[in-house]
Amino acid sequence: MKDSIITYKSPKDPISEAFRNMRTNITFADIDDEMRVLTITSTGKGEGKSTIIANYAVALAQSKKKVLLIDCDLRRPRIHRLFEQPNKRGLTNILLRECEPTEAIQTTDVENLFMISSGPIPPNPSEILASKRLIELINQFKLAFDYILIDAPPVGVVTDAAVLSHVTDGYIVVAAISVTNKEGIRMALETLRNVNGNIVGVVANNAPVSKRSGYYYYYSAYEEDQHQSKKEKKQRKIKEKRVK
Ligand SMILES: Nc1ncnc2c1ncn2[C@@H]1O[C@H](COP(=O)(O)OP(=O)(O)O)[C@@H](O)[C@H]1O
Ligand SMILES: [Mg+2]
Which residue intervals make up region (Disordered) (predicted)? Predict the structure, then answer.
């Protein structure tokens, strides 16, 4: 497991304490509505979504809840890397009926915490996430787990995070304090409200994203991730280095 899963590596660290506070706060937000399916998103990439949801998942599992963490960022999947697990079989394989759901659920080093990696990156992530099959699947998982946590792509970039509103009881929105501008966060919250998304909290994160990766820059990066060949991506990287 990567060092950035600090709730596992250093449970006594004040950061781990912050994740436990987050757990308490969300549990209290939960009194009237049953919030068992939580989705994390933000306005751009690199703001700390995957890191935060993975740490949150550990904190929940440590409180003896049975937790399933699903990587629904089918464009830049990271959960399997954080838990140092393979991504041979994952969500896309289940949705394409290439394997049984139980075959794609992986254990982690944390008791009570299970994960499903993204699976192979599909050409049409939004469609896949909007599928009825995903709703059925999550409902099925709700029978076996106390909490289902979903790592999603940025909400400003593509429709994926909003599409997940069909299965999400509450959204956690991450704002990287060094880059997320007011307009970006306003837009993200509005997009989620437009699909009747229930926002349970906004987490301010001090992620080390560079200033020039502003919101509009993310947009093109995500679009290109989908369509560009490896060679084009490499050329773009070289170009970006020159710009810096
Ligand atoms: N608060 C933080 N302090 C230091 N590094 C962080 C922090 N939050 C995130 N990171 C690092 O920033 C990078 C991007 O984080 P990640 O969780 O992958 O973002 P996202 O899922 O939003 O794209 C990772 O290398 C992660 O370890
Ligand atoms: Mg991520």
Answer: 224-244
Are the beta carbons of 45 and 222 closer than 8 angstroms? yes
Q: What are residue 39's phi and psi, to 5 degrees? A: -120, 135
Q: Which ligand lies nearest to the CA atom of residue 207 in the structure?
A: 1
Q: Which atom of ligand 1 is nearest to the CA of 78?
A: 18
Q: Please state, in angstroms and rounded to a whole number, the distance separating the CA atoms of residues 89 and 102.
A: 11
Q: What is the pLDDT of residues 32-90, one digit of tens each?
A: 667 899 999 998 889 999 999 999 999 999 999 999 999 999 999 999 999 999 999 99
User: What is the per-residue pLDDT across 195-232, written as a single tens digit (0 to 9) for each?
Assistant: 889 998 889 888 776 654 444 444 434 443 444 445 44
Angle subtended by helix axes 14-29 and 49-62, to nearest 10: 80
Distance 81 CA to ligand 1 centre (A): 13
Q: Which ligand is located closest to the Cα atom of residue 179?
A: 1
Which of 7, 51, 203, when mutated, tests ligand 1's pocket best, judged by the most ligand atoms within 8 Å of its CB?
51
Domains of the chain plus CATH, in order, are 6-243 (3.40.50.300)
Ligand 1 site residues, Cβ closer than 6 angstroms:
4, 42, 45-51, 78, 205-208
Gap between the Cα atoms of 12 and 8, Å rounded: 9
